[in-house]
Design goal:
The protein is of the alpha/beta class. The chain has three helices and eight strands, in the order E-H-E-H-E-E-E-H-E-E-E. A four-stranded mixed sheet has the order 3-6-8-7.
């Protein structure tokens, strides 16, 4: 498992949560504080079987080049994830932009399913403003 986040705080938080759940093998659980946009571009094809991507709606962090706007940038993010997935690999893509529209035509996936409703707890129906998709390479 590899976790990548620009924030050292969130990277350390993820590492601590994994350790608290008994997963301590440092060769199997890797935590990287980096710009995911740049990191994805360094990956060889078929590097992963499953990717979970939950980017912010917007980021202009001083630690990254440029600005992330999830509506504008989601196609390149998703396509870079697909490049890094093995054949038949799965991308779980979630975001919190309330007006988000997935550009399915620009994503060369074998299938794209909106799983927002299936992944929303019943007591949060109508309260959570997010989109969640299962994208298969």
């Amino acid at each position: 498992m590899t976790t990548v986040d620009l924030s050292n705080t969130y990277t350390n938080w993820a590492k601590r949560n994994i350790e608290l759940n008994g997963f301590t093998d440092e060769s199997r659980y890797i935590f990287i504080a980096a710009d995911v946009i740049q990191y994805l571009q360094t990956l060889a094809p078929a590097s992963f079987d499953i990717i979970v991507m939950d980017p912010p709606t917007f980021s202009n962090s001083k630690k990254m080049d440029g600005v992330l706007d999830i509506q504008r940038d989601h196609v390149s993010l998703v396509n870079n994830c697909l490049h890094a997935l093995s054949p038949g690999g799965l991308l779980y893509f979630s975001n919190n932009y309330t007006k988000f529209q997935l550009d399915e035509q620009a994503i060369p996936a074998s299938s794209i399913r909106d799983i927002t409703k299936a992944t929303t707890p019943f007591d949060f129906e109508g309260k959570l403003k997010r989109s969640c998709f299962l994208i298969t390479k």
